[in-house]
Design a protein that fits this description.
The protein is built from eleven helices and no strands. By secondary structure, it is an all-alpha fold. The longest helix is centred in the last third of the chain and has 34 residues.
């Protein structure tokens, strides 16, 4: 436990009133230190709860990355004090995953302008080619442009940076909302085992924690390559491909180890579960992005739907 706080002279526990002989209350376990500390102590205390000297945090991360299903089996077996609790682990990893990339230094404004100019020129050339190829149907193209003009006008007021910020900020919450559905499919496919829904929920928390940690590794690797201008495009794609491949393998392997089924049955169930969850996850993410866009600019969504409905369902 933490030893950065100054011990109180009063030996009565502030939490339960029990006499504290040394540092920790024998009744409730609270540390008998001064309540008011320097501001940096809050951060030290927060990270010490995870990076504890007994190695609980590091053992949890090690098992999470390289021992599929190990954490879930240990937790369900009652060995819970050795590792970071599943919900706490997910919240901490989701916080780091979406907070750390936001504070990393990015390209300066001049470099951004140059990159944007290159993209603009490429898009302009591509648009010109499309216009030339569409000369045979010029009238129809003009009609489309007129219909899109209103969307473009509305889009001028669309704050893309604010929209992207909302997407990133709320994404862990959206994933957290989807997790009960993920656990439901596990419960449905393994109902003969008579496991509690809670048990499948623990595995879901661990798997999604691993997923977020994989995303963090990809984001950090991409940032290193981009920021230091490393010309290793093929290597970067290969490493990202390997991480995604390991993410899929992790699901299949952890599923078999946790539910103790024969390989053929486990692979069949995993394939169906992977397909179902991929479809529902894509639908869920699309709906989530649409909601965030509607919150940011409802008029743009309404006009966009009118345009799509007029051309796809007419």
């Amino acid at each position: 436990m933490s030893h950065h706080g100054k011990l109180r002279e009063n030996k009565r526990c502030e939490n339960c009133g029990h006499f504290v002989e040394k540092r920790f209350c024998p009744e409730c376990g609270q540390e008998n230190i001064e309540t008011r500390q320097r501001f940096h102590y809050l951060f030290i205390h927060f990270f010490e709860d995870f990076v504890h000297y007994d190695g609980r945090f590091w053992k949890t991360i090690q098992y999470l990355l390289f021992r599929p299903a190990k954490l879930t089996r240990e937790y369900l077996a009652g060995k819970r004090n050795r590792y970071v609790p599943p919900v706490t682990l997910y919240i901490f990893i989701s916080f780091i995953t979406f907070f750390l990339p936001a504070i990393l230094p990015t390209l300066d404004s001049e470099e951004k302008t140059q990159l944007l100019q290159v993209n603009f020129n490429e898009n302009k050339e591509e648009t010109g080619k499309q216009d030339n190829s569409a000369e045979t149907d010029k009238q129809r193209e003009n009609d489309k442009k007129k219909e899109l003009s209103k969307l473009e006008e509305i889009g001028k007021n669309f704050n893309k940076e604010k929209w992207e910020e909302r997407i990133v900020h709320d994404f862990p919450k959206a994933i957290f909302i989807y997790m009960p559905f993920f656990a439901f499919w596990l419960w449905l496919f393994h109902n003969k085992k008579k496991w509690l829904y809670f048990d499948h929920g623990i595995y879901t928390l661990h798997y999604f924690s691993f997923t977020l940690l994989s995303i963090l590794i990809i984001l950090l690797f991409h940032w290193i390559v981009s920021y230091f201008h490393f010309n290793i495009g093929f290597v970067e794609k290969l490493i990202i491909f390997l991480i995604i491949g390991y993410l899929i393998y992790y699901f299949f392997h952890s599923h078999r180890l946790l539910y103790r089924e024969r390989k053929a049955i486990s692979r069949l169930k995993c394939s169906i579960l992977f397909f179902i969850n991929s479809i529902f996850m894509l639908i869920f993410i699309a709906f989530y992005v649409l909601v965030e866009t509607f919150i940011s600019n409802p008029e743009l969504v309404k006009e966009g739907w009118t345009y799509i409905k007029g051309h796809l369902f007419s």
